[in-house]
Design goal:
Blueprint (H helix, E strand, L loop, with lengths): L53 E6 L5 E5 L15 H9 L3 E6 L9 E8 L5 E9 L4 E11 L1 E10 L4 E10 L4 E10 L4 E8 L4 E10 L5 E10 L4 E10 L5 E10 L5 E10 L6 E11 L5 E10 L4 E12 L2 H8 L5 H17 L5 H15 L2
Parallel strand pairs: 3-5, 4-6, 5-7, 6-8, 7-9, 8-10, 9-11, 10-12, 11-13, 12-14, 13-15, 14-16, 15-17, 16-18
Antiparallel strand pairs: 1-4, 2-3
Family: Belongs to the iron-sulfur cluster assembly SufBD family.
Pfam family, one: SUFBD_core
Protein name: Iron-regulated ABC transporter permease protein SufD
Length: 374
């Protein structure tokens, strides 16, 4: 399938399954101006030959079907059309796709786990995952990433009418890993999606979560925390496409940065189309810069094509530790380093507490504590 005739907006002009429809980026494009292309290991220009080794394992509760299918399966690519060069490269290069199906009206008592582990190897690895949640079903999904790899993938979340899907995506890659991924959620009538991203590891990680609505009543909540160390580049680019009336979205991402050349990028795009009357949306990004030499780029964008909205707003803030907060704690006998940890832990912990999977929540809090102890 070739280039879409109707662009989504001035912010997102292309969507195509065909790699040839996307020019090789040079870094001057709006979509790539913050990304250090030289560190993508060829994912953006076709020079990353397949050969990387990534193992994917699934643990699913009874009643959930997990199967590997060919690219000719009708469920693959049905919800998401690649929107940039790397996404299209991943779509053109994967061998088998993983399809996870939750039957209608199922209420899972346990989470579905997808473990993605990089095992090194020369070259890049590519993947594709489809998660379908039937009407009125409720499911929780955890996707873990670890090990060493150059990896690009697309993940489609198809949430049926009245269904609820909660997803936690955890990036705990080794220090040399490169990961570029697009996560797309398509919501049916009265569907609910809760996506939580935790990005800690990797040399360069660029994640692009997006949401689209196919009927009124959809409700999406996108949250994320990230901790950037010296030399790391962690980038999150979000898109919420409000194309149906009376839908809701909320975005809240928070990050902490420390060390020379630690770089965080957050781009939040919300489009409210002319037909999306009654939309209620808000997006927020906050960054806490802990040391000199760290840099945070935060760009919220709101494109409104109708005046009939319930609410629409955005905010972004990046700054250092509040001296008054530190002074308050020190005045009560708490040493500076401990006071610093308490402030950062509270800043990120407000979001981390939203993770309903206890094992992951405790691991993330422990990882943040380890980062602060460096």
């Amino acid at each position: 399938m070739g280039l879409n005739e109707k662009p989504l907006s001035t912010l997102h002009e292309k969507a195509s399954y065909d790699l040839a429809d996307f020019e090789v980026p040079n870094g001057r494009e709006e979509a790539w101006r913050f990304t250090p292309l030289s560190r993508l290991k060829g994912l953006h220009n076709g020079k990353a030959a397949p050969g990387g080794q990534v193992a994917v394992h699934v643990r699913a509760p009874e009643g959930v079907q997990a199967e590997w299918v060919g690219r000719d399966d009708s469920r693959v690519g049905a919800a998401y059309v690649p929107a940039d060069r790397v996404s299209a490269q991943a779509y053109a290069s994967f061998d088998k796709a993983l399809v996870v199906s939750v039957p209608k009206e199922a209420e899972l008592s346990e989470a579905i786990w997808i473990d993605v582990k990089g095992n090194g190897g020369e070259g890049a690895a590519y993947g594709h995952v489809v998660v379908e949640v039937g009407p009125m079903a409720q499911a929780t999904l955890v996707i873990e990433h670890s090990g060493s790899a150059v990896y690009a993938d697309n993940v489609e979340f198809v949430v049926g009418e009245g269904a609820t899907l909660k997803v936690v995506s955890l990036q705990e890659w080794d220090d040399d890993a490169v990961h570029v991924s697009h996560h797309h959620a398509r919501l049916a009538k009265d569907a609910t999606f809760r996506g939580f991203v935790v990005t800690l590891g990797g040399d360069l990680v660029r994640l692009s979560p997006s949401v689209a609505y196919t009927a009124p009543g959809g409700d999406a909540d996108l949250s994320g925390v990230y901790f950037v160390d010296a030399g790391q580049h962690l980038e999150h680019r979000l898109l919420v496409d409000h194309s149906q009336p009376n839908c809701r979205s909320n975005v809240d991402y928070r990050g902490a940065l420390q060390g020379e050349a630690a770089h965080a990028v957050w781009i939040g795009d919300v489009v409210i189309r002319a037909e999306a009357e009654g939309t209620d949306t808000y997006e927020l990004n906050r960054n806490l810069i802990l040391t000199d030499g760290a840099r945070a780029d935060s760009v919220p964008n709101l494109e409104i094509l109708t005046g009939e909205v319930a609410g629409a707003g955005h905010a972004s803030a990046s700054g250092r530790l509040d001296d008054e907060h530190i002074f308050y704690l020190q005045a009560r006998g708490i040493p500076y380093e401990e006071a610093r940890r308490l402030v950062v832990r509270g800043f990120l912990g407000q979001l981390v507490e939203k993770i309903e999977v206890e094992e992951i929540r405790e691991r993330v809090l422990a990882a943040v504590e380890a980062e602060l102890s460096r």
